[in-house]
Amino acid sequence: MVAHTGSVGLRLVGDRTGLTDQLSKALARRSFTPVHDRGRVLVDVAVMIADGGEAIADIEVLRHQAPVLGAVASQATVWRALDEITPGQVKKITVARARTRRHVWGLLAQSATGFPASKVAGTDLGEVVVLDVDATIVVAHSEKEQATPTFKKTFGYHPIGVWCDNTAEFLAATLRAGKAGSNTAADHIEVLGAAIAQVPAAQRKNLLIRSDGAGASHKLLEWLTEQGQVRGRKLEYSLGYAVTEKVREAIKVIPDHVWTPASDADGGIREHGDVAELTDLLDLSRWPDGIRLIVRRERPHPGAQLSLFEEADGWRYQVVATNTNTGQLAFLEARHRAYARVEDRIRIAKDTGLGRFPSREFTINQAWLIASMIAADLVAWTRLLAFTGHAAVLANCEPKTLRYRLLHVPARLVRTSRRRHLRIPQTWPWAAAIVAVFANVAAIPPPA
User: Fold this and answer.
1) Which H helix or E strand runs over 144?
2) pTM for the whole thing?
3) How far is the C-alpha of 436 from the C-alpha of 424, rounded, in Å?
4) How does the average pLDDT of the chain come out, rounded?
5) Sequence-ordered list of residues with C-beta below 8 angstroms from that of 215, at least 6 positions apart, any chain
6) Nearest to 215 by CA among 182, 191, 247, 245
7) Are 7 and 437 in contact (CB under 8 A)?
8) What is 151-170 written as a DSSP string?
9) Among 8, 30, 111, 417, which residue's CB has the most CB atoms within a 10 Å radius?
10) Run of H or E including 283
11) What is residue 246's predicted lDDT score, i.e. its pLDDT?
């Protein structure tokens, strides 16, 4: 019997897309021939994380599958492999992921449905690649290197990451000490630069960067403006903006007839919600050219915490900063509100490695973060390339459900006619979908 049979499919995705070979080249060292190829070890750690592993000791689950997978590294070897990753190799791993992503996105572009578009207000953004950046707190329950008190009165790390809204891939992340600021422009620039580099050149021509109010800094907006001036590239941004006293004064002078209905998630009229533009009512000379401010007001839900200004008239206000000079205000505001999906990405990432770091050493935890990003990529690529046809019933499964239905399914390993077969119980409700997943994975064309 083989447990967690579905995780074999994730490993095959790493092999078929060329990721394992790319990582093997990135981690190769002169005069060092390990028993376990370091690229294979890193992919196995990513598969273990996607399968629900929370500690390096959980690699034993894959070692149990040796009759199917072959030799799998031991716990001690995994610890050494993660500890051996140097800053130079981190850069090579980044390049390896980018090259593999270029192949995967090329396959998606050639598919019948095409490259997935980001959905906003009942429509899609076409060829626009949407990058959502946000930071989150990861609580550490023991003393770890660079784990410090956080602004939320907890203790741990404060990583910042970027997710692609089109594909749900975890493009880039930086592990930071718990005391790191939420609105540090240098950290935003670093992680966004790494994320943009992950986007293949063919799709890098039309980008949208979204962030909450932590990203609304002069330094970041100036950097984004410069990136948008790169030849052959169009880069727009949509960021939260603080409701300051000057903003409140500008809101007060907006005539009632200027407010127009806001849009909901389906593109219809949002009940008790209006939008208006503040650009001409404020002095924005210190900000980059082309910036616009859009304000939304809506009736607060029960229990909402309001400022004294909001309590005075009963409306709750939120402001969006953007450099998009076309489109209706309602659509632009709804486009920014879709940024809330990044909270789902973070929640899923915390369920897939980001929520717990295994070591006291910061460098090993950085390597674990890299493996978590690779795990997210493997799941995303499996969903995009293999969850078609009969396997489409698994397309919307979140990690817990996906493990319950696919990754953790048991099977019997049998040998007939000198070949090995994994036989899934016919009574398993998703047996047909699992067979379709493996068939689709086997059909993925390898990189040229």
Assistant:
1) none
2) 0.93
3) 12
4) 92
5) 133, 183, 188, 209, 239, 240
6) 182
7) no
8) TTS-EEE--EEEEETTT--E
9) 8
10) none
11) 92
Q: Domain residues of the chain, as ranges?
A: 6-96+359-442, 116-346
Residue 141 CA neighbour count, 13 Å, CB half: 4
Residue 415 CA to residue 2 CA, distance in Å, equals 13
- The answer to whether 319 touches 241, Cβ cutoff 8 Å, is yes
Residue for token pair 């000079």: 325
Specify the pLDDT at position 137.
95
> Quick check: helix, strand or coil at residue 426?
coil
Grouping H, G, I as helix, E, B as strand and the rest as coil, residue 177 is strand
Chain length of the chain: 448
Question: In terms of C-beta density within 10 A (0-12 exposed, 13-18 middle, 19 or more buried), how is residue 63 classed?
Answer: middle
- pLDDT-wise least confident of 104-113, 261-270, 353-362: 261-270
What's the token pair of residue 235?
């880069």
* Per-residue tokens: 59: 């690699």
pLDDT at 276: 93
Banded pLDDT at 96 (limits 50, 70, 90): very high
34 strand-pairing partners: none
Q: Contact at 8 Å (CB) between 48 and 59?
A: yes
**In whole angstroms, what is the distance from residue 160 CA to residue 176 CA?**
7
What is the reported pLDDT for 335?
93
Domain 116-346 indexed as CATH 1.10.10: no
Residue 19 clears pLDDT 90, i.e. is over it:
yes
Residue 12 has what pLDDT? 95
pLDDT tens, position by position, 383-423 = 999 999 999 999 999 999 999 999 999 999 998 888 888 89
Query: Residue range 124-132: average pLDDT?
Result: 93
- Measured distance CA(437)–CA(391) in Å, rounded: 6
Q: Report d(CA 445, CA 107) in Å as an integer.
A: 8
Tokens of residue 392, six digits:
């489409």
φ, ψ for residue 298 (rounded to 5)?
Answer: -155, 155
Q: Which residues contact 145 (CB under 8 A, 6 or more apart)?
A: 360, 361, 362, 365
Angstrom distance (rounded) from CA 358 to CA 302: 40
Can you read off the two tokens belonging to residue 440? 């689709």
The region of weakest confidence among 63-77, 132-146, 306-320 is 306-320
Phi then psi dihedrals of residue 100, to 5 deg: -65, -40
Instruction: Decide which of 295 and 306 is more confident.
Output: 295
